[in-house]
């Protein structure tokens, strides 16, 4: 299973992120490419306890949904809602300048995977408590989902 814990999988994500630009077109959903980049950045900020997100988890999302999302073999489905704090047009960070936003996302990604950690992982707003390994798996899957959304 792919994870940001391995150098090869992280390098794949960084390479794919490098293909994103102003001409990137979404394959599904409503976000613009700039909103997607800011959404990924906000999600890392929440994970690293730098931005608050109101918990919306329940027993189902903390157990069954979390297990399938992190350990299942299918790709994440399109159209699943996020928490308002990471959603474009609601509580999410609005895009500024794409190149700057991409650089910032790259810096957040580096801090997210760095060892030793300079932060404590927060509880996931939907999945609840997660181990380091689960967070790094989530990070890969979340970025993969949105990079596929824009053909990368």
Topology:
Blueprint: H1 7-17, H2 33-47, H3 59-71, H4 98-113, H5 132-149
Helix pairs in contact: 1-5, 2-4, 2-5
Please give a handful of descriptors for the protein shown:
152 residues; mainly alpha; Four Helix Bundle (Hemerythrin (Met), subunit A); 5 helices
How would you describe this structure to a colleague?
- The protein is an all-alpha fold.
- It is 48% helix and 0% strand.
- α2 runs antiparallel to α5.
- The two termini are 19 Å apart.
| CATH topology name | Four Helix Bundle (Hemerythrin (Met), subunit A)
DSSP strand tally: 0
Uncertain spans:
none
Work out the radius of gyration: 14 Å
What structural category do the secondary elements indicate?
mainly alpha
Helix content: 40-55%
Give the CATH class. Mainly Alpha
Number of domains: 1
CATH architecture: Up-down Bundle
Give me the oligomer status.
Answer: single chain
In short:
With 152 residues, this protein is mostly helical.
